[in-house]
Amino acid sequence: MDRAVEVSVVLPAYNEADTIERTVEVTLATLEEFLPAGAFEVIVAEDGCEDRTPEIATRLAADDERVRHVHSDQRLGRGGALEYAFRQARGETLAYFDTDLATDMSHLEELVESVRSDGYEFATGSRWIPGNTADRPPKRGIPSKGFNALVQLLLRSEIEDHQCGFKAFDRAALFDVLEEVEDDHWFWDTEVLVHAQRAGYDVKEFPVEWTPKGDSKVDLVRDVFGMGSQIVRTFWQVSVSPRIDRRVNAAVGTGLVALALVLMTTYLDPGEVWANMREADLLVVGVSALVYVLSWPLRGTRYRDILERLGYRSDPGFLTGAIFISQTGNLVFPARLGDAVRAYVMKARRSVPYPSGFASLAIERVFDLLTIAFLAGVVVLGMVMTMSPTELQTAIVGTELSGGQEQAGRTAMVVAAGVGVAAIVATLGIVFSARSDRNYVREAVSRLSSDSYADYVAGVIEQFAGDVQTVASDRRAFALVGTTSLLIWTIDVFTAVIVLAAFGVELTPFVIGVAFFAVSVGNLAKVLPLTPAGLGLYEGAFAIIVVGLTPIGGALAISVAIVDHAVKNLVTLAGGLVSMAWLNVSLTRAVEESEAYSGAESDRKRVTRE
Fold it and tell me: Signal peptide: which range, if any (predicted)?
């Protein structure tokens, strides 16, 4: 070549055997019209093709030194192939366009020179701003308009057409923006432009003549759905996540609790709630605390069984202490940071690597959620199946309630039955898929979308199912962990039942069944990491179920929920303080150590991706 390459044009090619040769010829001829000889190169970014595209691209590169062939053995996705090729390009001005030449090549000079000579860092053609000529059939135009409108609204972009396959970039600016870009398929263009604008780079959008050629490779169901999920993901990352820290999380959670208390005073008399609590039998409340203590050695035993399945051995006593400490961390810190504390304790005291520590905890969480949901579902379905409609009505709404309250009770029962069915179906589905060699998760997600974010979502779900599979593949381990989980959460429910007795509530079989359902729903509500220990969330969910399904009044239901939750939290806190002294563990240091690991892991993944 006569001079150093200034401009690199990348042609993303996936199964383009019929068109790639002509596209390269037209591209070279157009570049020759306005760039000096030797100042440009054309790169065929061949993305794991299944046809003759690699063979043709190799021949073109051999015949003309201005052409290069960048090959990938596996499918990288449209954005991934572009990024891979750009990193190997030699020019300071980088450009690409779709190989079907839908955009008139008379615009190529303006595209390249906007960045090369006019001072813009990014340039893109547009099929939607005034002055363009674009023949877009409704099946393409309507989804495109909707997509761009959502990007403008949620991501505050000023671009009219984010997906036009006709763009140029300043090399340094592009690589700076790519630090924030996660997608590697159709959303890649949009994410680049959004982050470029947010970083303050100058972006030029100009009208182009555009004519669709052949069938689009965009699947209007899968890819439009996938890009919609990408908009939500990017909105969360750029607009929501940066504003959420530990302080904000705690403030929001505290605000929700305060709001719940204020709203409660509009239909409950706080004095009545306090009076009910003062009249509770303290001896019986103490018995409930002793019963709850019995569940903790079972937690340690279950955790031992999980760790043994992962290849690590430890004694139940130590593990019970570690769980006490982590749950105490969840009482003190928002966002369930206590979970990370346990991973730190297992690493520092038993040399269990962080990945295995988090995996074991995830398995435990999965069994907790499945057991809670299963208990709720079985109890409610049992009520529906064993009681006549008259008995249900009498049990739910009593004889002294108004018509509106009667209707509310019936509605609550219908909803509860629906939740029960869903819980049982979900439990059976997860266990079945975990024991199957067939990847149902990947199959289901791929039907909706094939982009990188869909892959990420599928990976998260697969990890969830994989955690279950780790134990479910061993029938003995699955039976042990499942049985222990049932015992743990049954004790949790009976703690609440004893608290009900402390308030003088008659413990009929129906009331005990409602208690199972109310405690289960309350614990499911606590899964949301909005408040430390789920304060307010548990009480609200518990009271709603009890009031909706029994004649127990709101003030009494809230009183029972508060005392029940307080008993469990006080036992946890006491056990945590004792365990921290025994194992010489600092909560704050454990959180700092686990966060340092998470940050290092995030950096490692970024380096691996690049």
Answer: none
